[in-house]
Specification:
With 155 residues, the protein is mainly alpha-helical. The protein has a domain of 70 residues. It has a three-stranded antiparallel sheet. Strand 1 and strand 2 form a beta hairpin. It is elongated, with a radius of gyration of 25 Å. The relative contact order is 0.09.
Length: 155
């Protein structure tokens, strides 16, 4: 199979998905699935491929990711049920994220209220911990020295 450039394959892929809606059947959305239901806009998957997949896989992934044109009789029968279930799943997912945001807010409020006690407990229970208030991977003396060296050269 002769592939075009990544840009050419992306353009062909986008064209193939014009007018295709979530819930359509697609070929090769993922490398390990032959056929599946498009669960989000095709553009999301195209952008994911272009951004996160290894460069040497992108053109092939984009070439093969296509809407299914064949009308499977059995799919026609279950498609409406799938769309209904998918809509219900999306509503539940939205509700879950709303609850998660509330939980995160409550945890942040607790951490703020008990910041001093948390710091004392952490110091006692994790005595060799490199936590700097933001990460367990703070700048080291080596990186600090390198940064200082660079700053001295720039100045």
């Amino acid at each position: 199979m002769k592939l075009g450039t990544i840009e050419e394959e992306a353009a062909r892929c986008r064209k193939a998905f014009e007018g295709v809606e979530v819930g359509a059947l697609v070929w090769h959305c993922h490398h390990d699935r032959l056929i599946e239901v498009l669960s989000e806009p095709a553009e999301n998957r195209i952008e994911y491929i272009l951004t996160y997949k290894p460069e040497d896989e992108r053109a092939l992934r984009l070439r093969l990711f296509r809407p299914v044109r064949h009308k499977f009789r059995s799919w026609v029968k279950i498609h409406a049920a799938w769309l209904k279930a998918h809509a219900k799943l999306r509503r539940a997912d939205a509700a879950l994220w709303e609850e998660y945001a509330e939980w995160e807010k409550a945890v942040a409020e607790w951490e703020e209220a008990d910041r001093e006690e948390i710091a004392i407990a952490h110091a006692e229970e994790c005595p060799d911990c490199p936590w700097d208030g933001k990460t367990i991977f703070p700048p080291t003396a080596t990186t600090t020295s390198l940064a200082t060296l660079i700053m001295n050269v720039i100045e």
